[in-house]
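Page 42, continued from yesterday. The earlier attempt failed because a stray header line got pasted into the input along with the sequence. Redoing it now with the clean sequence only.
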Amino acid sequence: MLVRLLFVVTLASFSLFAQEEEKDIEKMSEAFGHLLGNNIETIGVEFDIDLVVKGLKDASNGKNAPMSGDECLEAISFLRENSLKELAETNLKKAEEFLKQNAKEKNIVTLDEGKLQYKIEKKGNGPQVDPHSNPVIHYTGKYLDGKIFGQSTEAEILSLDETIQGFSKGLVGMQEGEKRTLYIHPDYGYGVQGFVPPNSLLTFEIEIVNAEAPEEKATDSLILESDRDSKSPPDLDAPSIR
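This time it went through. Structure tokens are written below.
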């Protein structure tokens, strides 16, 4: 009797385990689909999701693909290049129109017409940032739509000699304690290279913590480069400016 009871309990436990495992597989399978979907968006090509799902099913059933792997990658590369070119043209028009209209707004200061503007959000009262210096800053970088693509979690050192032109010009003259919003044309930002969508207008909210970093720490500066020599396409959803 005891043996039978133990057998029944064991069988029930195994059944419950199998059900839980089945639920886990269901959740994991659906989550994996989300991973694929999210990564497909970053490729920069508008896929037919229904056919992507069909391809997954056909591949799992051993059916032949309509293109070879190399042909598929070549086609994706061609479409992505065209898509990025169109996006660059669209973004450039949006950037130039924004800067044109923004120049008319109250308290907007133009440093280079059509290229670089700023607005003082909070005045400072300490030493000023000099050209070729290494100020200590807090920053938040945003796209034109307000989406944040990078921000500091603590004060960081920025080398003005090793950064984008929007920073090397836009920070000069800021005082310690000052907060300023920079509006940067793509020519003074990352252009069609780097890690952001091509020809993106960038806005940076900057706070100057120290006008010049201590000499021993200046070598650890944050470098915001345009990466002009990069041959690879930009990441369309980069989380950080590093």
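Notes: The longest helix spans residues 2-43.
Reminder to self: strip header lines before submitting.
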